[in-house]
Amino acid sequence: MKSSKKIKREEFIRICKLHGLKITPQRMAIYEEVTGSSGHPSAEIIYRKIKRKYPGISFDTVNRTLLTFSDIGLLQIVEGYGEPKRFDANTQDHHHFRCLRCGSIIDVYHKRYDELEIPAEIETHHKVIRKRVVLEGICKQCRER
Are 144 and 105 in contact (CB under 8 A)? Predict the structure, then answer.
């Protein structure tokens, strides 16, 4: 039986090849750093970690790579609020809870959110590609402090 990490690596290679994207050690390291993260890291956080292994890599390269990964469906960009973009390796349908105090982002799975009806005035004029609900409040850790 294949490990989850091996399956992710194979999927990464398949999608990169499908989009004509060269597979480099730096790209692989960036992808593995995001998929190995328990949160929703920013480009800055990924850059700081990758720079340890690849000291010559620039922030711009890491940021552009993350945006490219988002464009080809390897990652998703988490909803922004004027803060740096945050990236999510979980490409399954899901929603987010964002703590207004600490900024943490927590994945939320709720079938009824997935099934929200699109208003007719939107559906008539636009093509909806993805539905995402963002809940905001104070997380459990901040409430307990």
Answer: no
